[in-house]
Design goal:
With 174 residues, the chain is of the alpha/beta class. The chain has 5 helices and 8 strands. 40% of the residues lie in helices and 25% in strands. A hairpin with a 4-residue loop joins strand 7 and strand 8.
Amino acid sequence: MNKIGLYLLTALFALACGILANNYWVSSKMSDPVQMPAFKLPDPEGKWHHSSEWQGKIRIINFWATWCPPCRKEIPEFVALQAELANQGVVFIGIAIDEEKAVKNYQEDMAINYPVLVDNATGVELAREFGDSMDAVPFTVIVNREGQIVFRKPGEVTRDELMSQIDPLLKPQK
């Protein structure tokens, strides 16, 4: 099987997993938050970023790919929410499981206003560390200011789902 055929087969498998995940695995607010795994990844320009860079912020981490239709559908909403919530200590972080050039081109075309990192080689394994047991893309987690994963969602996530999880994190704890 040639390289393009292998990519196509992988893409179709990931898309099918994402669709199944969206239909069968309900998003989950976690009753027992778990510590977010640390990571160090490059952006499309080759600059390395460590997960501690966003410590103390509410992080919405989204594993995605340029070839994934549900991923592409989510990104404009993420861009809008990033603009809306940035001054409240919220940061979206896209981790692309894709080729660096494709990610760079897509990031520029979509004017993505949040950090985009590239992890084509081990992105699936990193997503598993975050709780993606189905190897689905897209896969989104929300991490509170203390660095704990409080929400996981395989498959496409909506603005309403995100806001229902983010809003309580924005309110001061008593």
